[in-house]
């Protein structure tokens, strides 16, 4: 009993330290980048966008190096499942989601291609070092895509915090925060892996549930805040961008650092298919809801507004509830596996 409480305390402490240090590191790194002359737009596209996925990246990398490959893979796929099924599901039930033309024509198709690419690499049951390098190359391509297509988009200035601290302090604080991130990641992985072993639970299940949910908290908080403000493009950008980075970055580093990971067969047969299925279901609801009323955001003439209506979508609360119910069903299947 004492050992179990120790493992749970380690997991809780790891989550708290990981969340706090990741949020603070984004602010400090943004401040440092600003002092070094980087534009606000560039900071938003790189440090802020990828910073929200820092917990997943570090936890999966540490898990892979420590020999807990199930946690590394489960964290990446589980975070994507939670982002679509739970984060978008809850958000859409509370506040009906509007999906813009750019998301429909560019971001969702890109996410679909990334899912197919990542799952294809894992079909042989191994995430090899070469697979990791291929994912990393694709991540570089995605970063190039972001840079090339950022022109004309709304600047994320309101979402970037620049602290009033000198450059020297920013450098020191950034190094200390990186150390806290690494230490809290190791504490979290240790507690989770030991808890799994003590109860005979698969590390992959732990990664898909406890770890994935904890590392997805930054996305959940960001999405809920954006939805309350009516910033639905930010909601979609947060979820889709995070999911792409999870597959191309969070999966890549464990493969590279570990020299190759052997996958649980259920990773593809169950978890990969659920991730792809939930994403496809959301895309289906988006397409079948195109041209919904109150979807136009253009402040121009009626002809312009009507044209935009054909390229935007309003997701009803009912459809979001269906996505949330599918996610709950998946959690039920995992619970049966644990109890069985």
Written description of the protein model:
Helix content is about 80%, strand content about 5%. Helix 3 packs antiparallel against helix 4, helix 5 runs parallel beside helix 10 and helix 6 packs antiparallel against helix 10. About 5% of the residues have low confidence. The strands form 2 sheets. The protein has a two-stranded antiparallel ribbon. Strands 2-3 form a two-stranded antiparallel sheet. It has one domain: A middle domain of Talin 1 (Up-down Bundle). It is mainly α and about 350 residues long.
Output the CATH class name: Mainly Alpha
- Please report the distance between the alpha carbons of the first and last residues: 22 Å
Order of helices and strands: HHHHEHEHHHHHHEHHEH
- Quickly count the domains: 1
Decide which structural class fits the backbone: mainly alpha
Total strands? 4
Radius of gyration: 20 Å
CATH architecture: Up-down Bundle
- Assembly state (oligomeric): single chain
pLDDT under 50 segments (min length 5)? 152-158, 297-310
Keyword list:
340 residues; single chain; globular; A middle domain of Talin 1; mainly alpha; 78% helix; two-stranded antiparallel ribbon
TL;DR?
The protein is 78% helix and 4% strand.
Question: How are the secondary structure elements laid out?
Answer:
Elements: H1 2-35, H2 40-51, H3 54-65, H4 69-94, E1 97-99, H5 101-122, E2 126-128, H6 129-148, H7 167-199, H8 203-215, H9 217-228, H10 232-250, H11 252-258, E3 260-262, H12 266-288, H13 302-309, E4 313-315, H14 317-339
Antiparallel strand pairs: 1-4, 2-3
Helix pairs in contact: 1-2, 1-7, 3-4, 3-7, 3-11, 4-8, 4-9, 4-10, 4-12, 4-14, 5-10, 5-12, 6-10, 6-11, 7-8, 9-10, 12-14
């Amino acid at each position: 009993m004492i050992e179990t409480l120790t493992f749970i305390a380690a997991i809780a402490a790891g989550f708290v330290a990981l969340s706090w240090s990741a949020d603070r590191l984004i602010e400090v790194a943004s401040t440092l980048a600003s002092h070094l002359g980087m534009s606000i737009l560039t900071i938003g596209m790189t440090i802020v966008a990828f910073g929200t996925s820092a917990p997943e990246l570090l936890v999966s990398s540490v898990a892979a190096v420590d020999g807990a490959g199930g946690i590394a893979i489960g964290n990446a796929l589980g975070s994507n499942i939670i982002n679509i099924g739970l984060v978008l599901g809850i958000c859409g039930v509370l506040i009906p989601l509007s999906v813009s033309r750019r998301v429909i024509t560019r971001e969702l198709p890109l996410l679909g291609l990334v899912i197919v690419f990542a799952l294809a690499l894992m079909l042989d049951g191994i995430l090899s070092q070469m697979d990791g390098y291929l994912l990393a190359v694709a991540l570089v391509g995605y970063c190039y895509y972001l840079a090339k297509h950022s022109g004309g988009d709304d600047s994320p200035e309101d979402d970037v915090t620049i602290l009033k601290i000198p450059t020297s302090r920013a450098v020191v604080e950034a190094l200390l925060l990186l150390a806290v991130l690494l230490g809290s990641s190791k504490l979290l992985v240790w507690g989770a892996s030991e808890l799994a072993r003590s109860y005979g639970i698969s590390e992959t299940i732990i990664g898909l549930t406890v770890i994935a949910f904890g590392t997805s908290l930054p996305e959940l908080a960001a999405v809920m805040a954006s939805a309350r403000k009516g910033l639905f493009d930010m909601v979609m950008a947060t979820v889709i961008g995070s999911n792409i980075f999870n597959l191309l970055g969070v999966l890549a580093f464990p493969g590279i650092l570990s020299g190759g990971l052997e996958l649980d067969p259920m990773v593809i047969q169950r978890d990969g298919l659920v991730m792809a299925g939930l994403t496809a279901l959301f895309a289906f609801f988006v397409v079948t809801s195109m041209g919904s009323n109150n979807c136009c955001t253009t402040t121009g003439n009626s002809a312009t507004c009507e044209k935009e209506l054909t390229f935007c979508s309003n997701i009803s609360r009912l459809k979001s509830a269906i996505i949330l119910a599918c996610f709950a069903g998946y959690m039920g299947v995992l619970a049966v596996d644990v109890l069985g």
